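User: I'm writing a short methods note and want a consistent example. For Sensory transduction protein LytR, I'll paste the sequence; you return only the structure tokens, no commentary, since I'll be parsing the reply automatically.
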Amino acid sequence: MNNCPRAVIADDEAHLRDYLEQQLAGAWPELRVAGRAANGIEALRLIDEEAPDVVFLDIRMPGMTGLDVAARLVEAGRPPHMVFVTAYDQYAVQAFEHSALDYLLKPASLERLAKTVAKLKAALAAPSAAAAPPVDALRALLAQMGTVVVPAPAAAPAPLQWIRASQGEQTRLIAVDEVVYFQSNDKYTSVVLAEGECLIRTPISKLREQLDAQQFWQIHRSVIVAARHVAGTRHDFRGRLMVQLKDRAEQLVVSRAYADLFRQM
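Assistant:
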């Protein structure tokens, strides 16, 4: 059972969540539905907690749309495979732009769902290909459709070396080598140093793009830690994986989506 693929279903209409789960039980019996969400915010929380392999997202949900959820997942990195399920086909192009693996119109027939399941199984069976989001494949598909032109990504800039941060009434210029970890807090991101703490306005998603991924590891949607400050890991009484830091008492929670970083530790 531990090797069974896991999914989260997000739809604001309970009977449609039930219908899709029933259809999936027939089309993909080994799939386990790990959670069901009634809105986008609940979907993000479930995805963070459960780290599913697949997410079925309704596009029109209250508070945060399925497209908003997809954008947040892509920004955070390591998104699950996403399938949009909606009654409105005008969202198809936006779905592809947000790295959707497929797009289903409600109510999805068993025959159409079977094709989606086949795509998902193929993607899950190819972890090396799945390690990168399917943006390039979607860009090619959109170009063939003649629907929209999505520019190729620009060359990655050099990793961030310096940070301008606020500490009390002062503004400091901090070398990234001094940072122990970053943690998002409401409108700000805390920059935790060996001695003291500063604040910046740059969100975690933007920092992740600018930092050297070999030196800084994202371990949670809201935390990036400097690898050289990681002493080890342990599980707490709730079964959560925790990062222990060198020369610091606090421990940092690792979400399930990033737990594989520490499988060899």
